[in-house]
Design goal:
four-stranded antiparallel β-sheet, 14% helix, alpha+beta, 10 helices, eight-stranded mixed β-sheet, globular
Length: 672
Amino acid sequence: MTSAAPFGTWPSPLTLDVLVEGAVGLSFPSVVGGRTYWVESRPAEGGRLVLVRSAVDGTDPEDVFGPDFSVRTLVHEYGGLCYAVDGHTVYFSNFADQRIYRVDPGGVPRPITPEPPAPRAVRFAAPVVTPGGQHLVAVRERHPDPDTPAGVTNDVVVLPTDGSSEPRVLLEGHDFFGHPVLSPDGRRMAWVTWDHPNMPWDESEVWCGELHEDADGHPSVTSRRRVAGGPSESVTQPKFAPDGTLLFLSDRTGWWNIYAADPDGGPDRPLAVMDHDLGSPDWVFGTSSFAVRHDGSVVGTWFDRGLCRLGVLRPGARRFVEIPTPLTELGELRPDDEGRSVVAVAGSASQPPAVVRIGAAATGEEASTPIDVLRRSRDDTVGEAYLSVPEPIEFPTEGNLTAHALFYPPRNVDAVPPAGELPPLIVSIHGGPTGMARSVLTYGIQFWTSRGFAVVDVNYGGSAGYGRAYRERLRGAWGVVDLADCVNAARHLVDTGRVDGNRLLIHGGSAGGYTTLCAATFTDVFAAGASYFGIADTMVFVNETHKFESRYTDGLFGPWPDTADVYRDRSPVAHAERLATPLIIFQGLEDKVVPPDQAEIMVAALRDKGVPHAYVPYEGEQHGFRRAENVRRTAEAELYFYGKVLGFEPADELTPVEIVHADRLGRGRGTA
């Protein structure tokens, strides 16, 4: 029965319990021996990551190991792909100690790398088993002091799969390595490298070499050559086709497109050219936006106005043919054993992410494509009558440019607002900042829209998915371009009559948390904000973050310390005298990417300035919250905080959060 209620107070079937119950994260599917493997992140088990495998027919999934292990690597801190399967034997990085473990059929995990000199001091990622199963190749990261970024070294190593000797160095001499892959015959190896001050999406290189064994059976890489990449070019995702051709993505045209390397060292050739990105930034190991099938055809994905498209590139063709599918988000594509079908993690605006198998018949000519769901990230979903479908929007921003976002209007079949009322708006800011807002069903957004909030998920200048020129809008301009685009997204929705300009809110995590803190400091647009592990003092952050991002700000602000004045100008805490926007701040106390002192110095500034605020720290959490109770508490506390700031009573029964200077609520900002 439909009833009238103000926006923000709508009773929602997406309760705090539903937000976390039965939910798992899904990543890194692969098919070996006809069985599909994937990684599940389980909030209900304290955020443990579990390797799961299904039967050959895709049924009866089972955990590969017991509750004493978690499959997760901390290389680059963000980690990523950290398991490999050879026949029925599994190799994986264990979160607790970062050693590689081996699991034989019917056995229990046993370590095959030495115990590190200090906990988590030696880490491994992106493992690959050599043909014959005698050796394992992996990216290695060594930390002289696991608590600091100083002296960290990265290389590629090889080790015997029986653990009979220590890892030996295959590749070294660059700051970073990624994507090690072997040719089908095991005679060649390709990889990606990049060096400070670049991030992999700024400037990187694909290399290839011959893999040989000496008289003692020790592998080495010879005849190394740079295949592609260099100044102002990002290359990624090298893969060998069944015939041995090396494929990779390059953004040399301004878009990540697919190329084939010449086996004789001649110029590479584009396989298909389009003004769309087939790739995405290498924040984690194992990104895979295309898969090569047995016949040499390529199944790939690309971004179009924030939505993901699926297509096939047949041998000899010059363009991808789109495959009809209801999916709007696809990633981590990998072929099955026979190279006929493709597995992926995929979803849509009405379906949460799932591990799926995309049928072998897909050629781009069929009216429909068979898609089998092997594992959903949720067993139950809220009915579509309560789900807000994202609308890709474009809006004007600074410099006579256009920026992009996904807009979610409020939706709840059981509630209607009073006549003439407009909804409050949450401006949501993705991390990175070289990341992107995605269109897959996210209960973290629907939690708000089903209660009567509008949400705009902003792909500000600097976001991925819109080409290199769009990504580079943020060069030297972090804290300026992203902030302006978020403000202009809100103003656009106010000006077009879709939201209430007096009830604008803003939230984001990591880099999005930084933009949130900038918005609360440098603008008077928002009534309140929520920062999850955001950067408050860029001058401190640049000296305490981890190796992978330790030079990231060179491109976002300028080289440190030569441009120290820019860092100070863009640091919210350095301008605490301008603070007036109420804030709630969430922080993991084991975060190595944005350490807790970033939250604590901001909380101190808010306290000293007399600005209403709340601080919610979490023991045992790192960069992002993985435990069900903390995910639930974050949503609950943020809703409670917004209710107090905007003066409404949510329909939910909420456990209060302590608001410092609560008596000053109502004196802040918030008019677009």
